[in-house]
Amino acid sequence: MRLLNPCLLAIGALSPVVAALAFDGAVGFGAIATGGTGGTTVHVTNLDDSGSGSFRDAVSASNRIIVFDVSGYIQLSSAVSLSSGLTINGDSAPGNGIGIMGGEVSASGKSNIIIRHLRMRQGTLDSDSGKSAFNMGKATNVILDHCSVEYGQWDSIDAVSAVNITVSNSIIALPIGQQFGAHVETGPSTFYRNLWVSAHNRQPLSKDDTQYINNVIYNYQAAYTAANTGGDFSHDIINNYFITGPSTTSSSDAFYQMNSGQSVYSSGNYLDSNKDGVLNGAAYNTVGSATVLSAPWASDSLALATLSAADAVTYVLQNAGASPRDELDTFVVNVVKSFGTDGTLYKNQANTGVSNGGYGTV
């Protein structure tokens, strides 16, 4: 068995003893994000793309806690750049919540960002196909929790050269363009209790040391993907449920590009490959030619894995995504509940048949 780098051991040892959590219940490597704690509370008072009271204006300065006095979609005319030291509380919005559509939300190069209950839906309204729904490239200390990320063109989530990130309790679904879920490099990263739906690949692409726990992955062509020639990393893959759908050509691609350079602790994972409309999978922990670890590389991974794979399906289908659940997320969840009989990979959000040109009505 390949010995772990002492630095990685140090990171793993620190993970369960975070001095102050981003919020009560925050987990993983992004839980150390401080956000806008102690800063100014700024209210978003309209759905305008820019100007006084807009979301773009609210996130233009650091050390802020963003709350919403309005509900509905904010349609971007260009990517919106976040500042460092922000807490974005989407659940503060009245009514049916808040969403961002038609452009990238970017935390590129920033640090200490907490985002909760925010819908980020890029789609073809964004003319720049090289952008993603959410970009945290070169960012540090970021946590997304109960977010809904759909219709990403380059990736749903771009986290190249990102350090200390968590994506939890979120829906990452229906990427268009490249049809990729998430691309992570550098890390470490934690993906916890997420729902991944109808992507060609990268759910996520993990070029880092990763915790992947209690996720549900549906209608994949390639699901959890390792670095291939991109480097040697460690992966804790625990109690996840992989469910094939109409777009799945090879069920064994639940684990993809697991070469001999990767070290993997794989336990409690299930695969439902028969597409018969019933959740009735079997244990599946085959990790290709990767080095098999006898224990997780991160010291808190087993403590996080409180749900079995089957219980994770129940929990994630009920709880993942921004609250309250809206039309588009309901569509996504219902596709998964077909357990193999429904689902496709899209190139344009309008093809879903969901209202508002595919974006749904918030």
Automatic annotation (TrEMBL):
Its cofactor is Ca(2+). Its main location: secreted. One of its GO terms (molecular function) is metal ion binding. The keyword DNA repair does not apply. One of its GO terms (cellular component) is extracellular region. Coiled coil: none annotated. SUPFAM superfamilies: Pectin lyase-like (SSF51126). It is found in: Secreted. Keywords: Calcium, Glycoprotein, Metal-binding, Secreted, Signal. InterPro entries: Pectin_lyas_fold, Pectin_lyase_fold/virulence, Polysaccharide_Lyase_1. Residues 1-20 form the signal peptide. This is Polysaccharide lyase family 1 protein. It comes from Aspergillus nanangensis.
